[in-house]
Amino acid sequence: MGKYNYNPFSTEADKFICHEEIEETINFALNARSNYTLMSAIMRRASAGKGLSHRNAAALLMCDIPEINEKIYRLAKRIKLDYYGNRIVLFAPLYLSNYCVNGCVYCPYHVKNKHISRKKMTQDEIRQEVIALQDMGHKRLALELGEDPINNPIEYVLESIRTIYGIKHKNGSIRRVNVNIAATTVDNYRRLHEAGIGTYILFQETYNRERYEKLHPSGPKHDYAWHTEAMDRAMSGGIDDVGIGALFGLSTYLYEFIGLLMHAEHLEAVFGVGPHTISVPRLRPADDIQTTDFQDCISDDIFAKIVACLRIAVPYTGMIVSTRESPQTREKVLELGVSQISGGSKTSVGGYHNLGGEEDNSAQFEIADNRSLDEVVCWLLDKGYIPSFCTACYRAGRTGDKFMELCKDKQIHNFCHPNALITLEEYLQDYASEQTLTVGRQLIDSEIRSLNPKIRKRLVKYLAEIRSGKGRDFRF
Ligand code: SF4
Ligand code: SF4
């Protein structure tokens, strides 16, 4: 290092995501791939469960020594259990509008696509969608919108957030609204923060500037630095929890993997807290998008290894996989590190209430896991996971560095575990099928036994109140 301008403390995109540093890291990883001594040393460091630098993590990702690879998967599973136990947090995306002025060549919402139906939901339509989501049992949403200053101004986003938080239907409520909107100004981030959003999510798509500029030929998103520095502006605007991600398939996977970790290191260096979540979407077919047009799509095996190596590199950062992935792939990556998944998702505008009718072609990508939320919950229970609808931290002010401290000390378990059981009980009581209810209750009964007596006593009281219909929304 040193020959070029790499600086994780800099707030300039080309310095904290420095191309030359990524190239050197790629060389380092490729040269290290069969070096048993070096890999063993990296694994010794990794086994402390405190994370790894982007260089060491990249070396593990490229490792071709079977014995070390087995250890990588074993360690990822152990770290996953140590930090996240058997809990999986559930959420759903909510597409508000697919109007977009950008030209992203991998997304059907790009401005030149003239045959896709364009829709922007009214506040009444949002209400219908949210009621449909509440009736499924969801408590946590991720808002999705294209970038369009005329159709989707920040005022529309803020009004929609207010609408969503205001809807109380039967026992339903949306308790955490995460937001995925285009890179914007510090002032707009501040307004989102004041509106009470949970995590601000923005995928980098690709960290490779040259590829980025080719894949985003027009619109404000063409500006690589504006997009890459968005999380810095979000944090300057008061948003504590940010979620990063790369769309695997747009450039070589090793480049994206290193970019993600350098981004995380940069946020930690400048703000003292890394990203709250990392998403690992893979390119999917969609209206006028064929994955065969992209040379860098990755296999299931590489995908699994990316998840395992990210788990080891950033143990305390949640990892998200959506319904872009099949049930089989989701099952594999759950044990390797994924902590949040979407369930029962629709990726079209108005999809939950079928506002677009049978002819609707407004989906952003094809879904590979079409199961209902109840089927996903039942499947998780069957695999021994606790499906969690918990949203407690942000509502209790445990965000940013306060949250990360608890994570790093593994204290967060004492909140996540009982909260998962409380919210699962709410789900079972209000929305579950008979089969899910039976399996869920069995799991709650057996999980209660592992809690310390003080927490158990409080939890048993909360569960009884939920079951008798006396109360909802208890939390630790
Ligand atoms: Fe618009 Fe986002 Fe799709 Fe790009 S990826 S075309 S910004 S909706
Ligand atoms: Fe997430 Fe906090 Fe709930 Fe744990 S307690 S699941 S970290 S919101």
Could you explain the architecture of this structure?
The structure is a single chain. This protein is of the alpha/beta class. It folds into three domains: 24-81, no CATH class; 84-394, TIM Barrel; 409-467. Helix content is 47%, strand content 9%. It contains 20 helices and nine strands. The chain has helices at residues 13-16, 19-32, 36-46, 54-62, 66-84, 123-136, 154-166, 186-194, 209-215, 224-228, 230-236, 253-271, 300-313, 327-336, 373-382, 392-395, 400-408, 413-430, 434-448, 453-467; strands at residues 87-97, 140-145, 176-180, 200-201, 242-245, 277-279, 318-321, 340-342, 386-388. Strands 1, 2, 3, 4, 5, 6, 7, 8 and 9 form a nine-stranded parallel β-sheet that branches. Helix 2 (19-32) crosses helix 12, helix 3 (36-46) runs parallel beside helix 5 (66-84) and helix 13 runs parallel beside helix 14. The radius of gyration is 22 Å and the shape is globular. 50% of the residues are buried. Bound molecules: iron/sulfur cluster (2 copies).
